[in-house]
Specification:
The protein has 433 residues and is mainly α. It contains 15 helices and four strands. The strands form two sheets. Strands 1-2 form a two-stranded antiparallel sheet. Strands 3-4 form a two-stranded antiparallel sheet. Strand 1 and strand 2 form a beta hairpin.
Length: 433
């Protein structure tokens, strides 16, 4: 469904209010990543988040929206099977040509600027405590200026994934209401690339087994979850209006599904950790909460509330179990759980549309195939692309901080001051490799 060139007044007002909420999602993730790290890296984590948002906004302004575009605007296309398939936008750089007088494209550019920053913020969780600030900014510029807009065009800009319905008869085409794929899976797969390139923190794996490195502030983590909820309500609602053509009267459905998915995911994580460890684990439960929000971003406008609960339960279980599985079996060090929370939960949400899309007017049994094509594109193209780009960055300038910097703490090493100067922080509180 193509959105109108200009939003009706009520839809425009709701969309604007919801976009204003989206930065709360970034604030929530920044607090979660900071709280899950050690105290000697806390200021660096928050400073990195601020720099990422700044770099992403500028990169998206310069060229990101030009590549992403919007349905009905200029795009490069290739012909295959007698059909035209759009593969990238060709709007002018620097947002030239965008009508800021209430056009849908102007709302999409505003939404996209925040979304690109949110996507670029996700890898900070997997690279925490060892990723240099300059390298973080360079990686964020590439993600916001190229990787995110490219996939976002295919999904939200009238690109070939969105055209699977009209050109190939696959349901509505690939559906992603609030960015489970465009924002979170892209960010989560980039987080996986960063974790592999940087390698584990020193002392994380002793004799082949993962060593627990607890975060320093559970209150930051849990408060970040509350901020994230507000941000996600805005993210999902604005995305549904802009890219799914949702009417203003269906906003309550989006909000209810978003909340139910997060709630059920949290309960699943809490029950699993209670059964496995004897007591609920706050950090894993928080990750389950965000995982439920991520999964809801794909489906919130197209499923009934009961389905949202089931989707959240699976997301919470998937996030909780996969965090341990990635550590134990693949030796991937992901301090913030970004790969599981955003990558795996995002992909699950995309696939869930094919199973639970049963609202009146749904598109039929071929929707699951369109979703599978989109997920295959994420895994088979976007991940190799983002890995290759960050690998090249690492070859040009090593992205990992020096051993002395890791020992000393990123706050003192890169910023010259600790987040908690009145407290004594240990410069070496991990076991040798």
């Amino acid at each position: 469904m193509n959105p109108p060139a200009a939003l009706p007044d009520l839809a425009a007002a709701i969309c604007a209010l919801c976009i204003l909420l989206v930065p709360l999602a970034t604030a929530g993730l920044a607090l979660i990543n900071t709280g899950l790290g050690r105290s000697r890296n806390a200021a660096h984590a928050m400073m990195s988040s601020l720099c990422v948002l700044a770099v992403a906004a500028v990169a998206y302004f310069v060229c990101g929206f030009s590549w992403q575009g919007f349905p009905g605007r200029a795009a490069y296309a290739a012909q295959a099977g007698g059909k035209l398939w759009n593969w990238i936008g060709r709007d002018p750089f620097f947002l030239r040509g965008v009508d800021f007088g209430g056009s849908s494209a102007s709302f999409a550019a505003w939404f996209g600027m925040f979304s690109a920053g949110l996507a670029a913020l996700i890898p900070l969780g997997s690279g925490a405590e060892r990723w240099r600030l300059g390298s973080i900014c360079a990686s964020a510029a590439i993600l916001a200026g190229w990787t995110y807009p490219l996939f976002a065009h295919w999904v939200w800009g009238g690109g070939w994934l969105a055209q699977l319905g009209a050109n190939f008869g696959l349901g509505r085409g690939f559906v992603d209401v609030g960015g489970a794929g465009s924002i979170h899976a892209v960010g989560g797969l980039t987080a996986l690339a960063i974790a592999w390139i940087l390698r584990p923190r020193r002392g994380k794996f002793a004799q082949g087994m993962p060593t627990a490195i607890p975060g320093h502030n559970a209150v930051f983590v849990l408060f970040g979850c509350l901020l994230a909820l507000l941000g996600w309500l805005g993210l999902n609602t604005a995305g549904a209006i802009l890219f799914a053509g949702m009417e203003a009267g269906r906003v309550p459905l989006v909000a209810i599904n978003t909340m139910l998915s997060a709630a059920s995911a949290t309960l699943a994580s809490t029950l699993i950790t209670r059964a496995r460890f004897g007591k609920p684990d706050a950090s894993l439960s928080a990750n389950g909460w965000v995982g439920g929000l991520v999964a809801s971003s794909a489906v919130c406008a197209f499923v009934i509330p009961v389905a949202a609960i089931l989707i959240g339960l699976v997301a919470g279980a998937l996030v909780t179990l996969s965090i341990e599985w990635l550590e134990v079996h693949l030796h991937i060090d992901d301090p913030g759980g970004a790969i599981s929370v955003h990558g795996m939960a995002g992909i699950w949400g995309l696939l869930a549309i094919g199973f639970f899309d049963h609202l009146p007017g749904s598109s039929g049994s071929n929707q699951w195939l369109a979703q599978m094509v989109g997920v295959a594109t994420l895994l088979g193209f976007v991940f190799p692309l983002t890995y290759a780009l960050n690998w090249l960055l690492n070859r040009i300038s090593p992205q990992r901080v020096s051993l002395d910097g890791e020992r000393q703490g990123m706050d003192l090493h890169e910023l010259g001051a600790n987040a908690y100067p009145e407290l004594v922080t240990h410069q070496e509180d991990f076991t040798p490799r």
